[in-house]
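Progress note, sequence design subtask.
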């Protein structure tokens, strides 16, 4: 058996180093820093220093942060947004990069829940785009789980009375003002407990939206809008038209008349003017464009739904391809073969 012996004396070790090619241990390759040089700031040595004193003050961070939806509305801005039903983080990110003022992640009509919404909120946060979560149902459990994710806004469906509006607001506030369960030391809404000012500021920054989408609710819309804590009334034209018996005709004259009456009721509450009340929010429809809505006093307009945009683009893409095929067939018939123009007219008339 072969044996390996290694030098033990310092002189033998020096001899071994000298025999190695491109010796990496030569003194000239070492960089000596002066003992007074400092690469990183030193933390306070006392173990009793509170964590919050080591963090950037909230006031300083807030000065550089973008405005919230709530502050922009109070400043008189008109905001344009998108509803996200696909729960696709990729589409959420595209929406944010496209420049929408907000994106509503729709847990009412979309297939996803809280765990599906979180990646969408991550994608929107990466583009500095505010997220609003629409709940599938107005109850404290859904509100608690949604609010703990830290959206800028929350939307409650089917608010038909001031009583329901007051309940919705209570779901958003911690005791004694409300009934929201508290885990503020660990949830995303407070940056997992790193934000020391969360409890002092969450009410000022959260936009609470109540949907009015039935004839019964429209009759009480001024009372709903006047409830303390309700920031926006979101009109629901499709459910409203269905409640009136016009499921297939949301643009019906009678539906439009009720919508106009409801809008005026919200505007009477003078949302954002310092006297309480709510702002007006709603969906654009084929018969009601975003420009028309803005002219009537809407401050939040949702112009599209992600799946609707993709559906329209996909249908148009297929249509263009099939039309190009038909154009090719017409070119082939120029030699006299086939039915010609009369045949085409007959085909389209069928």
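Output:
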């Amino acid at each position: 058996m072969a044996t390996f012996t290694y030098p033990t004396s310092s002189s033998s070790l020096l001899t071994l180093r000298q025999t190695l090619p491109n010796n990496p241990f030569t003194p000239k390759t070492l960089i000596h820093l002066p003992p007074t040089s400092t690469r990183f700031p030193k933390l306070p040595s006392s173990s009793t220093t509170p964590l919050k004193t080591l963090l950037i003050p909230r006031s300083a961070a807030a000065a550089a942060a973008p405005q919230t939806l709530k502050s922009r509305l109070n400043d008189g801005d008109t905001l344009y947004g998108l509803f996200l039903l696909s729960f696709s983080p990729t589409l959420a990110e595209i929406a944010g990069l496209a420049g929408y003022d907000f994106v509503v992640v729709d847990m009412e009509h979309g297939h996803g829940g809280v765990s599906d919404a979180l990646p969408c909120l991550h994608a929107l946060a990466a583009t500095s785009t505010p997220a609003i979560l629409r709940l599938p149902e107005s109850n404290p459990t859904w509100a608690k789980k949604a609010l703990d994710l830290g959206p800028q806004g929350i939307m409650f469906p089917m608010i038909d009375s001031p009583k329901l509006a007051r309940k919705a607001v209570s779901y958003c506030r911690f005791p004694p003002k409300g009934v929201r369960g508290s885990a503020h030391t660990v949830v995303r809404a407070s940056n997992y407990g790193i934000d020391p000012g969360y409890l002092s500021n969450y009410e000022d920054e959260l936009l609470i939206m109540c949907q009015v989408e039935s004839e019964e609710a429209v009759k009480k819309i001024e009372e709903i809008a006047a409830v303390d804590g309700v920031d926006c009334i979101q009109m629901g034209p499709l459910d409203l038209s269905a409640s009136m018996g016009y499921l297939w005709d949301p643009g019906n004259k009678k539906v439009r008349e009720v919508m106009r009456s409801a809008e005026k009721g919200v505007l009477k509450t003078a949302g954002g003017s310092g006297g309480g009340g709510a702002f007006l929010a709603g969906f654009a429809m084929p018969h009601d464009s975003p420009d028309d809505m803005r002219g009537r006093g809407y401050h939040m307009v949702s112009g599209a739904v992600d799946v609707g945009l993709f559906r329209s683009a996909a249908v148009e893409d297929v249509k263009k391809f099939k039309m190009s095929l038909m154009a090719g067939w017409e070119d082939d018939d120029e030699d006299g073969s086939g039915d010609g123009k009369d045949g085409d007219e007959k085909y389209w008339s069928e």
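Residues 156 and 346 are 52 Å apart (CA to CA). Work on this subtask will continue into the next period as scheduled.
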